[in-house]
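Q: How do we represent a protein-ligand complex in a form that can be generated token by token?
A: Start from the inputs.
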Amino acid sequence: MKKGKKLYEGKAKIIFASNDKKYVIQHFKDDATAFNNQKKAVMDGKGILNNRISEHILTQLNNVGIKNHLVKRLNMREQLVQHVEIIPIEFIVRNIATGSLTKRLGIEDGTVLDSPLIEYCLKDDDLGDPLVSTEHILAFKWMEIDELNLINKELNRINDFLQGMFRGVGIKLVDFKVEFGRYEKNGKKEIMLADEISPDTCRLWDVNSDKKLDKDRFRKGLGNLIEAYQEVARRLDILHEQSNIRPLKYTKPQAVKIKKKQ
Ligand code: TMP
Ligand code: ASP
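Then emit the structure tokens for the protein with aspartic acid bound:
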């Protein structure tokens, strides 16, 4: 697959054309931003980790019938994905209240929600990605009602699967953001999950300590972001070869005296 010209550059990724109109190349950068680009830094290796983690998660979702744009990972920083037109809405699913929800509504941080809460934000950096309602989405024709119903169902399936997957490795899925895209199949518009799912787009807490293993380490200036992402990758059993994680302490075998048979 040949890499063509840059089609779009976002805060954490770049989209390049490929030699087939149906596919594009998604490149993961090391840039970290927060609060709509007000806080910025370059985190060495973040792009590599997110490329691998997102590849793993989207492959697992595909295996359980949640179709998405991933075709295959091409190299350390790039994946081949289906070319879709991104719907201008960020879909947020919350299991535990934190972040903007707690600030906006005064809900206590860490409140476990009775059932998953779905929120929609308009994807518009100039406006600061404002929260919008179903009525706004329909009134301004950002989506058709059928598309929205389908996505809501898909969001619950994605949440169920991801919660289970992370819980199995000792991580609470607090919340996450996903994006969907439209594409044409046999002359009909279809919808599929797109973008990425990584510690940049999820909140992940260790089940025992509530230690943050996601981009909140950067947003809140907690440090050790790369170590946290590596921890997620290690627990998901990916990234063995380039992991910097120290091996278990090596203890030199002790000589054992073998008693001579009498
Ligand atoms: P929030 O609490 O800041 O609204 O974030 C909710 C979730 O969405 C959290 O997992 C982080 C993710 N998120 C993004 O992926 N991109 C964004 O631009 C924002 C604001 C949040
Ligand atoms: N991605 C957004 C930004 O760059 C916000 C965030 O993830 O907190 O500003």
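DSSP finds six helices and 14 strands in the chain. Confidence is low (pLDDT under 50) at residues 245-253.
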